[in-house]
């Protein structure tokens, strides 16, 4: 069986690696994914984009890449799209137009429930299976849409969790300033000052493993006082507390059971547009989930003008760890388990029935 995969982003490839463990060895992967998982048609490093100008320069490259994927789809039994809606949704439309009977599965869906809701009907009519990792997501789709909740992939990938009554002190605080240039540069001044004001703790800073030395120097500046690490899950599990940029790491911390505060500051114009285009009460997924199952957030968020070193310190000093760890258990129960086994079965089931 041939599976055409489009997984452009680092996080999608982590989920794909877990999914691949549950697919038969005879499954042949083709398309766009990490070279560690097979033989892709393109080096993922060539897809990296830094800024608007760079994106414009690379548009012809992405158009050619999409055309190549459409040609590859001719011999594929199924198509699996993962995240990256800017590339994958137009690709899905092209493949469905060329091959109307080709089964397209979309795993890790675009967050159309939060912004650009016009994509929802496009997804519903273009894809044969919409595999959601958010329990509330299907409520935003029409009843006839082929969407189903399959669990959350992080529950497959995290292997250590703190218990509801687990009390310990390691003396470690984790700092996660994100992976994008702007967010790192805007958070690092706060984190450096914060580290100086918490000198009794060991400070570990999580840096993406694919950053080279030159990029680290450029983005992070002076890292004296910090211990650079790459393993997010182990670092969060071993830490008493974490200061985390908005993103997937906030949900990872919540599932593991590490107390944390979400910190984020965007450019003023970006923040202005987001407030008008994005229909969300909170930035963190754990808080959005918590609103759904208990009507209140789990952890503090400091965004834009509310973000300061003093505010970060106050959030750290007043954090209600006991209540948070009880909420963590509710969150895990709410998500219900991992997604990889179920998605693997879905990929195989119609093939077996055909």
List keywords for this structure.
12 strands; six-stranded parallel beta sheet; 2 domains; Rossmann fold; single chain; 354 residues; 14 helices; alpha/beta
Describe the structure.
This protein is of the alpha/beta class and 354 residues long. It is built from 14 helices and 12 strands. α1 links the parallel β1 (2-6) and β2 (28-32). α1 (10-20) packs across α14, α2 (52-72) runs parallel beside α3 (85-98) and α11 (285-294) packs across α13. The two termini are 12 Å apart. The model has no long low-confidence stretch (mean pLDDT 90).
Could you write a compact summary of the structure shown?
With 354 residues, the protein is an alpha/beta fold. It is 44% helix and 15% strand.
Task: Tell me what the CATH architecture of the largest domain is.
Answer: 3-Layer(aba) Sandwich
Main β-sheet, spatial strand arrangement: 2-1-3-4-5-6
Give the number of helices. Answer: 14
Topology as a string of helices (H) and strands (E): EHEHEHEHEEHEHEHEHEHEHHEHHH
Radius of gyration: 21 Å
* Contiguous uncertain segments of 5+ residues: none
């Amino acid at each position: 069986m041939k599976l055409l995969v489009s997984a452009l982003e680092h996080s999608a490839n982590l989920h794909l690696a877990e999914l691949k463990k549950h697919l038969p060895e005879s499954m042949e992967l083709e398309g766009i994914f990490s070279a560690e998982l097979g033989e892709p048609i393109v080096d993922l490093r060539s897809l990296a984009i830094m800024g608007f100008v760079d994106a414009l320069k690379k548009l012809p490259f992405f158009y050619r890449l999409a055309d190549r994927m459409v040609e590859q789809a001719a011999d594929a039994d199924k198509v699996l799209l993962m995240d990256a809606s800017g590339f994958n949704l137009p690709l899905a439309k092209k493949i469905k137009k060329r091959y109307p009977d080709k089964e397209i599965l979309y795993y890790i869906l675009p967050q159309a429930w939060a912004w650009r809701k016009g994509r929802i009907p496009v997804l519903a009519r273009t894809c044969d299976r919409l595999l959601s990792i958010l329990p509330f997501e299907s409520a935003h789709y029409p009843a006839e849409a082929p969407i189903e909740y399959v669990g959350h992939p992080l529950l497959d990938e995290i292997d250590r969790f703190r218990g509801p009554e687990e009390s310990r002190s390691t003396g470690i605080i984790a700092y996660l300033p994100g992976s994008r240039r702007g967010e790192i540069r805007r958070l690092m001044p706060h984190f450096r000052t914060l580290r100086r004001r918490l000198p009794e703790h060991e400070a570990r800073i999580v840096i993406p493993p694919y950053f080279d030395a030159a990029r680290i120097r450029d983005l992070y500046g002076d890292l004296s006082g910090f211990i650079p690490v790459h393993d997010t899950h182990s670092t969060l599990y071993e830490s008493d507390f974490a200061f985390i940029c908005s993103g997937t790491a906030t949900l990872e911390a919540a599932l593991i059971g590490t107390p944390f505060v979400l910190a984020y500051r965007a450019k003023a114009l970006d923040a202005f547009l987001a407030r008008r285009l994005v229909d969300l009460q909170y930035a963190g997924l754990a808080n959005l989930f918590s609103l759904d199952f208990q009507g209140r957030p789990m952890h503090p968020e400091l965004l834009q003008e509310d973000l300061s070193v003093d505010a970060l310190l106050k959030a750290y000093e007043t954090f209600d760890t006991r209540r948070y760890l009880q909420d963590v258990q509710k969150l895990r129960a709410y998500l219900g388990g991992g997604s990889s086994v179920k998605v693997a079965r879905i990929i195989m089931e119609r093939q077996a029935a055909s």
